[in-house]
């Protein structure tokens, strides 16, 4: 079973560009390119002989074209996997693209956005390159691939009513809940979602975390002490749902706050997770410098303790919002921002989506609807266009008045890309 990925629809918009796809290990980058785009030539920079070939670009690729492509009406596609592992790749690609983009298309992948975009020095690719982020699978992608006869409303892109889209999806009630139970159990990586094997899943988590240590950190040289970075990652996971303190982690691990700050930066660079900042709503009443950390996918929260609790539920929502709103909050326009609200009285709303100072959506996470709207009522004085009490409890869709709704997660999640 192949899971349909939304990123495929974006490729048509970037013809005649160098397309770079980055994202976490095993998110599906190579699989999508090989199976959906079907390149005429593939090179893997983990393979020594392919690295030698790549370093002979553009001469080698021109010879390949003359020998293998005969009177084709379409441009062949050349795929370079793990391109960041070749020092000087930027200069090679710039020269190759400038000489051959009229008759060859190129696509490349890498595990680290930082390494691809900034770390390797060389000529600028401005005007030539497009960077696309591939996240683990979203719930919407999972439903569209596995949900027989389920018709979903169009995804929400920060415009119009979120609740109206969720209400349309609620017509699929029980079917969505069954799919959600699997998704929340096995996370967003395709192999686990397809297998649905708990024993395999637990071993996969062990192997994945080992791979992140042995390859991502060591190969990319973003930290000297990889064991300490891993310990920082574990501390961040233990503190999910709360703001983290560099000083506190430094005292725990016997390091300086600046060292821990660099370790957190390394974790973000290799795409293990992301930070959520304070949403600037009120200048006079808000704490402004605190941040929360969430893993890139909620499967990492299953590593030690798989029981659903408030912090884990919040993490699940954070990862879905991050990938579902990525195009709106990053990249070309970045018109919208995603953050959380907390004031000096410790009143907090878990997620705030803004356009400038305008509050588009406020989301408070609770396991059950009976917990009440909580701080959403307090937050109403800032006049959000819409507010949602998001619950893990199944089958809930309730208008609570004043543009506030209680909505179950299985109706909320497929409304995001």
Description:
Helices cover 40% and strands 18% of the residues. With 417 residues, it is of the alpha/beta class. The chain folds into two domains: 6-133, 3-Layer(aba) Sandwich (Rossmann fold), CATH 3.40.50; 139-415, no CATH class. The protein has a six-stranded mixed β-sheet. A five-stranded parallel β-sheet has the order 2-3-4-1-5, with helices on both faces. The protein has a two-stranded antiparallel ribbon with strand order 6-7. The protein starts with 17 loop residues before the first strand and ends in a 5-residue tail after the last helix. The model has no long low-confidence stretch (mean pLDDT 86).
What descriptors fit this protein?
single chain, alpha/beta, six-stranded mixed sheet, five-stranded parallel sheet, 17 helices
Give the SSE layout.
Layout: E1 18-22, H1 29-37, E2 41-44, H2 48-55, H3 59-68, E3 77-81, H4 89-100, E4 105-110, H5 113-119, E5 129-133, H6 139-146, H7 162-169, H8 173-186, H9 190-195, H10 198-220, H11 226-238, H12 246-253, H13 257-269, E6 273-277, E7 291-295, H14 310-324, H15 326-329, E8 336-342, E9 348-355, E10 358-366, H16 375-379, E11 387-391, E12 397-401, E13 404-408, H17 409-412
Parallel strand pairs: 1-4, 1-5, 2-3, 3-4, 10-11, 11-13
Antiparallel strand pairs: 6-7, 8-9, 9-10, 12-13
Helix pairs in contact: 6-8, 11-13, 12-13
């Amino acid at each position: 079973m192949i899971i349909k990925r939304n990123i495929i629809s974006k490729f048509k918009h970037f013809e005649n560009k160098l397309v770079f796809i980055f994202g976490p290990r095993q998110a599906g980058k190579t699989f999508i390119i090989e199976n959906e785009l079907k390149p005429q030539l593939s090179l893997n920079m983990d393979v020594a002989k392919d690295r030698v070939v790549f370093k002979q670009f553009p001469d080698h690729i021109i010879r390949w074209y003359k020998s293998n492509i005969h009177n084709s009406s379409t441009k062949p596609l050349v795929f370079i996997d793990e391109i960041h592992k070749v020092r000087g790749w930027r200069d090679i690609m710039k020269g190759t693209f400038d000489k051959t983009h009229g008759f060859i298309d190129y696509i490349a992948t890498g595990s680290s956005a930082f390494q691809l975009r900034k770390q390797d020095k060389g000529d600028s690719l401005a005007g030539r390159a497009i960077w696309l982020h591939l996240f683990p699978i979203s719930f919407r992608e999972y439903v569209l691939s596995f949900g027989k006869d389920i018709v979903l409303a169009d995804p929400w892109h920060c415009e119009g009513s979120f609740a109206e889209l969720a209400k349309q999806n609620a017509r699929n009630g029980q079917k969505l809940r069954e799919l959600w139970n699997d998704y929340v159990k096995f996370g967003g990586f395709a192999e686990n979602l397809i297998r649905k094997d708990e024993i395999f899943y637990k071993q996969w988590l062990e192997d994945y975390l080992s791979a992140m240590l042995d390859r991502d950190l060591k190969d990319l040289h973003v930290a000297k002490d990889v064991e300490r970075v891993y310990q920082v990652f574990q501390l961040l996971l233990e503190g999910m749902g709360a703001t983290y303190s560099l000083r506190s982690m430094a005292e725990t691990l016997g390091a300086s706050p600046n060292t821990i700050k660099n370790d957190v930066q390394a974790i973000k660079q290799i795409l293990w997770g992301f930070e959520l900042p304070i949403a600037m709503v009120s200048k006079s009443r808000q704490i402004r410098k605190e941040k929360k950390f969430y893993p890139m996918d909620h499967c990492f929260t299953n590593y030690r303790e798989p029981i659903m609790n408030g912090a884990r539920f919040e993490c699940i929502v954070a990862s879905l919002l991050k990938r579902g709103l990525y195009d709106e909050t990053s990249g070309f326009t970045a018109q919208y921002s995603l953050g959380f609200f907390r004031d000096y009285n410790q009143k907090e709303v878990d997620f705030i989506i803004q356009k400038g100072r305008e509050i588009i959506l406020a989301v408070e996470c609770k396991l059950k609807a009976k917990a009440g709207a909580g701080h959403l009522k307090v937050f109403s004085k800032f006049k959000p266009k819409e507010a949602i009490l998001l619950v893990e409890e199944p089958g809930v869709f309730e208008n609570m008045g004043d543009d506030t709704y209680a909505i179950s997660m299985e109706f909320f999640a497929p409304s995001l890309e």
